[in-house]
Amino acid sequence: MEKPIHDEIESRRTFAIISHPDAGKTTITEKLLYFGGAIRDAGTVKGKKTGKFATSDWMEIEKQRGISVTSSVMQFDYDGKRVNILDTPGHEDFSEDTYRTLMAVDAAVMMIDSAKGIEPQTIKLFKVCRMRGIPIFTFINKMDRQGKEPLELMEELEEVLGIESYAMNWPIGMGKEFLGIYDRFNKRIEQVRVDEAHRFLALNEDGGLAEPHPMEETSYYQQALEDVLLLNEAGNEFDEERVAQGELTPVFFGSALTNFGVQTFLETFLQFAPSPQPRQTKEETDIDPYAEEFSGFIFKIQANMNPMHRDRIAFVRIVSGAFERGMTVTVPRISKTFKLTQTTQFLADDRETVNEAVAGDIIGLHDTGNYQIGDTVIGGKSSFQFNALPQFTPELFVRVTAKNVMKSKQFHKGILQLVQEGAIQYYRTLHTEEVLLGAVGQLQFEVFEHRMKNEYNVEVNMEHIGSKVARWIENEGDVKESMTGQRAMLVKDRYDNFVFLFENDFAMRWFHDKHPDIRLYSLL
Ligand code: G4P
To answer: Which of 153, 187, 333, 374 could form a disulfide with 389 if both were Cys (CB 3.0 to 4.6 A apart)?
Structure first.
């Protein structure tokens, strides 16, 4: 490694971009990778019209549906920092995957479409970030189009999301009349469509332009100046500590598509985004990133990422210490040790073998079926487990069988692997051993069916049994089969825990009245 380990760790910035679909997450990711030198031309990651696709869109189904289903990781260096961007699926049916990814980052960038404002999926994802108390940076996108008034957007942020905000910059006009941004933080104006040498205009002490400029004559400039003075008077103060606590979100306006304001955003973001943070264990201790012992947790497992490599990769967020290729780690859940020789790092257009990585980084471990989502890996003698990753209570269920009974072996293998990946949840009926699958969103079933066919060569029958209210049981020992019925089905989950699937809320309440001593609970 080039620097001492401590400095290496301190230089890491690991974050995810969250947004409602179509706000511009892919577009800005592409621009960030471009600035980081990870891709050569800012058009190679994704262009739905050009037929090229983001490296994160590795699955056939994503191409067909034009949605980003799975999360991926991209890494680049900028300004002495090593940046890890974790991509998240925008579609709400894959929220569980996104939630797990958010456990692996230290900050989030929230993209908002200036014409749409705060959308439903933004609210959901924002809440998870809030729960974790991670810093949230807001990028209000598409200023090259006519959108809502900036003050209205700021108000919406505070009212709908309940987070205080600080505008780092302010748009001067928008749409066809978008002239640039008034950069409060760097005390300059950045103009659009102006060559590099004349792009920035300095501001004076009073906040006006230092040198006379034709822009001053426009109503857009006058309006922006008025707004900024209002913000100076009545807005929140910038407070680095509150940003770090996730209580105040710095807001940036820009246009990802025309690549305006993105570089300034990146530079300011890297200055305030936190370096790797500690993580709590089930034993309620904090593991410090600078601790000597290597540790991390698996937040994602992805099979068959690339048809060229038919393999499975477990994504590890390194929490502490340094990873070296060939090291031996323990997985406390199964008390097994593994020598890590086949490991992967994620650069934008390639998968490279990684030899060394430190806290904050994400590495991919080659997996032959040993790992599970949520597993802790430790490089030393300690034994602890990081807090469990969130699991959702599924609401939709199907009964699934192989169309061809001769394919039973492949069928079970496919299900096992997709369940271990967290793509879908597994349940089985008690005596008949029928396989039920649970999901948060319908698309998960479609992805399941598609992948079973394409990756495991098994066609499946899926019989919808509709939505159910799933409840786990605190005092499992007290459950009797006589308590079950058509409207309260008893099944087992993949860990062999009992789960009741109630027809609806009414059936659950009825059950509760009849068996008040059975203590039911739901997951997230
Ligand atoms: P997502 O990953 O958040 O789902 O959004 P994505 O980047 O795919 O962007 C969604 C659409 O919004 C794309 O248009 C993209 O070109 C457009 N877009 C992103 N940033 C900006 C911006 O700053 N200004 C404007 N005007 N548009 C922006 P599309 O027509 O759906 O896709 P494409 O065919 O252009 O790729």
So the answer is: 374
- From 19, 20, 27, give the residue whose CB has the most ligand 1 atoms within 8 Å, as the site to mutate: 27
Tell me the pLDDT tens digit for each residue of 141-193. Answer: 999 999 999 999 999 999 999 999 999 999 999 999 999 999 999 999 999 98
Cβ neighbourhood burial of 279 (10 Å; 0-12, 13-18, 19+): buried
> E strands within 321-375?
322-324, 328-331, 336-339, 343-347, 350-353, 356-358, 362-366
Neighbouring residues of 306: CB distance < 8 A, sequence distance ≥ 6: 58, 351
Spacing, Cα 245 to ligand 1 middle (Å):
31
Separation of alpha carbons 172 and 191, rounded Å = 9
Reference 106, options 384, 361, 364, 374; nearest CA is 361
Counting atoms of ligand 1 from 1, which one is nearest the CA of 49?
Answer: 34
Asked whether 49 lines ligand 1 (CB < 6 A), one says yes
Nearest residue CA, atom 26 of ligand 1? 142
Cα–Cα distance, 519 to 473 (Å, whole number): 6
Cβ atoms of residues 390 and 524 within 8 Å: yes
Does the pTM exceed 0.90?
Answer: no
Residue 7's SS3 state is helix
Distance (Å) from CA 68 to ligand 1 centroid: 13
Q: Is 256 helix (H, G, I), strand (E, B) or coil?
A: coil
Residue 227 contacts residue 150 (beta carbons within 8 Å): yes
Segment 61-99, tens digit of pLDDT: 455 554 444 447 888 889 999 999 988 776 777 778 888
Residue carrying structure tokens 């426009």: 218
Q: Are 338 and 325 in contact (CB under 8 A)?
A: no
